[in-house]
Amino acid sequence: MKLKINVPNDLSEIKLSDYVKYLKVIEANQNDEYSEAFVHEKALEIFCGIPLLESVKYKMSDVRKVVAIITETLNNKPDLVRTFKLGDTEFGFIPKLDDMTFGEYVDLDSNLGGWDNMYKVMAVLYRPIKQKVGDKYIIEEYRGDVYYDAMLHTPMDAVISSMLFFYNLGRELSIAMTKYLEEGKLEDSMLSQTSIINGDGIRAYKHLLDLTL
User: Fold this and answer.
1) Which of 61, 78, 116, 170 is the most buried (most CB within 10 A)?
2) Domain range for residue 58?
3) So what's the pLDDT on residue 68?
């Protein structure tokens, strides 16, 4: 059977809920040496919309080619995605981490460490833009679970890039902290940022990225 399907070749074409669904399939079958074909079929179902009963009609060599494209796409490491659209609503990455409220930090910190709650993390980091001039914007105040359902559709380039952002920021701050401590010049602003990045949840975020990559 000739293979005609739309294959995502950019992380922006993959939504968070589908990625989490795929991870669960891999996790459930990781100890089964005969599960490769099933996992590949599920990849077609989740990312390409091919029903499981239909995917079995395709040649295995073609399926593997498609899965290779999907895998390469999932391995991309994009620059930080500042804004993205869901429907008619444009969401923006929180402009200043220093301005994060205690409530935002608690929700961010408590939901890190696993993919099941990543949509809640995205609801903290990305908010609807209420005013925008050029590349500058103001986002809505944090409203808890109001946008949880919407964040299930967060494009994976935004998810992965935000993880990389915290990973790199945490690494840079750690290096800066060591340098300033050695020189006895650790500034309050550095301490403030580091307290956010080096919380238990943020370390779990870094660990989650390590596992993902």
Assistant:
1) 170
2) 11-74
3) 92
